[in-house]
């Protein structure tokens, strides 16, 4: 068998191949080897030093508007290669075109937004943080808070499910803030990230050192971090726990943003009985969330909370729509849902289902339908499964286990306080969505959930066409949730820049404060 190509890493301003044999990236539908990645032998300390010394320094010599212009050019270059990204996503992620678009176009949209917001920041080199306040009776001596770019780099350790968006939703605010980026994509789907970096490097848009990529093992990455660096991690709660206890974070106070897993819920309010538009909206959104990217979205609906009296009707309506979802080879035009990202993830979904089996009943089992154009012994394709737990309080596993695939559980509640308490059993989630038509009840439910959720998405009949989707992460809104969800905070417009800036207070006369140029 001929060896597939070994994708090089880009560090210290040049392409460098690992010295090991590499890890193969596979087509999750056909099981064939596509390319290999390897990071053995890279001098990561030198690579990070170069990124700080050359990349961050060059970026920070520019204004926000100049850096925003670079983002716009990056977006243009990526757009010209969009077809290649689509092909890589089909081959390496096993996604149908509309699912690949969530990742690729989501990345382009986010880059475009930050380019526009950054342009509006103009020629400043630091950001004003509130107004100056006097420190005595007279305004002779004042305190002005400001935010300045941190003199380190931004390391991203990313998850497998968003190889395109996962890079650019972080890189856009980081580069706009003036921090060099080093990305380590998840191995299983590293190809798309690597190709995008290659296209941007080839186009010569960014200063040397501003964008680096390490593909393959994460060994040594955290050891190379220094006090002013920031680390943004997206992945499982288990890996997050390992990362949090690493000496770089524990001893050097490296700033870390952690996006981990989450048991997001959708909540049908008591007034939204079958036959109401809100009921239909919940059903539509649940089916969409379970099937887009085969349920491999950190924001996907995992728990569906409905009034006890509509449990049966909801199960039937969701099941009827899931029955129309064809699963299989994304290259077949008749397929609506492609593969999971790997056979390992297929096994993980089986394991998750086994963990939930004790606490749940199966309400819809897509596994009774054959895969389209895919060999079940090889392909990582998994049909949708709707579970239900009639005693939502006792079904602890449903509030604990995130099955990262097309699986969700229907849970009946007694009254609204009970429903809100069940949503909070997720111990902190990325998003909850509410469905109903009573603005007062929805408003107070949204407030009640805000402390334990990064985002509350409220769907009423009048926003049926306008709402952006439970699981879609819009750059305008905060992404990240407390507790189990990792405690991270990304996006949210220019709020994302906070993570890459250092806040300081300058205490001085008004004349000196005016000279800060804010
Ligand atoms: P994972 O196994 O935790 O891996 C995430 C990343 O961490 C990968 O790049 C992985 O590299 C790397 N990694 C593994 N062990 C490491 C270590 N000891 N030190 C440093 N890095 C290490 O997660 P995953 O399976 O790729 O992603 C699925 C999970 O991510 C799901 O639970 C999902 O909920 C979560 N997720 C969350 C969000 C969010 O925004 N909150 C978004 C997407 C996904 P290798 O691939 O080389 O092992």
UniProtKB/TrEMBL annotation:
Q: Does the keyword Oxidoreductase apply?
A: yes
Q: Which Pfam families does this UniProt record tie to the protein?
A: Aldedh
Which segments constitute the Aldehyde dehydrogenase domain?
20-500
Q: Which InterPro entries match?
A: Ald_DH/histidinol_DH (IPR016161), Ald_DH_C (IPR016163), Ald_DH_N (IPR016162), Aldehyde_DH_dom (IPR015590)
The protein's UniProt keywords, in alphabetical order, are: Oxidoreductase
Oxidoreductase: present as a keyword of the record? yes
Q: Which domain of life is it from?
A: Bacteria
Instruction: Write the signal peptide boundaries.
Output: none
Q: What PANTHER family does the database record attribute to this sequence? A: ALDEHYDE DEHYDROGENASE B-RELATED (PTHR43111)
UniProt protein name: Aldehyde dehydrogenase domain-containing protein
Q: Which organism is it from?
A: Pseudorhodoferax aquiterrae
